[in-house]
Design goal:
It is a single chain. The protein is about 35% helix and about 25% strand. The protein is α/β, with parallel strands linked by helices and about 240 residues long. It has one domain (about 5-235): Spore Coat Polysaccharide Biosynthesis Protein SpsA, Chain A (Alpha-Beta Complex). The strands form three sheets. It has a seven-stranded mixed β-sheet, with helices on both faces. Helix 3 crosses helix 5 and helix 5 packs across helix 6. The longest helix is centred in the C-terminal third of the chain and has 23 residues, at about 215-235. It starts with a strand and ends with a helix. The model has no long low-confidence stretch (mean pLDDT about 95). It is an enzyme of class 2 (transferase).
């Protein structure tokens, strides 16, 4: 099996959620959102190390979640930086030198399945960098600063990007270090490699792999998980 390291940035406070604290500590079917996310990789034979990156004031809560859930693959819980980019960079540094292939996954994406994750790992094993993406359903228009429409973009060539994203460690570290020294801020980790001119492969994503950002997202996530549990129960009872 692959020797993957997972970096989970979990420092965002999620102001749009309106909870008044880190949204990843909110309960999703009785467990913190973050616990659902970490468990995906805890249960994967592809993964040997997990690093969680959080805000300084959240470290104790994250440690408590890891202890309560008995996650064995979490090798570090480290303090993030001023931006997500800084946090991922800190998480990469916390992985052992044995890890040469790194996956970055949002702490607020708890609905990824092991089946889809393993498919992604297999499909992208020959690529130095790859991301998940799904086709864009809505018509996308480019506008200027005052709202005038400049162009209607062709949907066939557009993808909404998700995590996980996977990278060769050497290239990811190079991109982060170069961006930090240059003051460049990318929209995600893949954009840093694109900025440096490295090719990034797009792999098929997962429609249900939503990022929980608003209260409506949390309700939808609960519905998705409940439907999965019912389906699993039916499958188990038919064996």
């Amino acid at each position: 099996m692959a020797n993957l390291g997972i970096v989970i940035p979990a420092a965002g406070q999620g102001k749009r959620m309106g909870a008044g604290y880190n949204k990843q500590f909110l309960s999703l079917l009785g467990q913190p959102i973050l616990a659902h996310t970490v468990r995906i990789f805890e249960e994967s034979d592809f993964v040997s190390e997990i690093v969680i990156v959080g805000a300084e004031g959240d470290i104790a809560v994250i440690e408590e979640i890891v202890t309560q859930q008995r996650f064995k693959k979490v090798v570090a819980i480290c303090i993030g930086g001023a931006s997500r980019q800084d946090s991922v960079r800190a998480g990469v540094r916390a992985l052992s030198s044995a890890i040469q292939r790194i996956v970055v996954h949002d702490g607020a994406r708890p609905l990824l399945t092991l089946e889809v994750f393993h498919r992604f790992i297999e499909e992208t094993k020959e690529y130095p960098a790859a991301v998940m993406g799904i086709p864009v359903k809505d018509t996308i228009k480019e506008i200027d600063s005052i709202g005038n429409i400049l162009a209607t973009l062709p949907r066939d060539s557009l993808r909404a990007v998700q995590t996980p994203q996977i990278f060769d460690r050497e290239k990811l570290e190079e991109a982060h270090n170069r961006a930090a020294s240059s003051g460049y801020c990318g929209t995600d980790d893949a954009s840093l490699l694109e900025w440096m001119g490295y090719p990034v492969q797009m792999a098929e994503g997962m429609q249900g792999n939503l990022k929980i950002t608003t209260p409506e997202d949390l309700l939808l996530a609960e519905m998705i998980l409940e439907n999965r549990q019912r389906a699993d129960s039916r499958d188990g009872s038919s064996v």
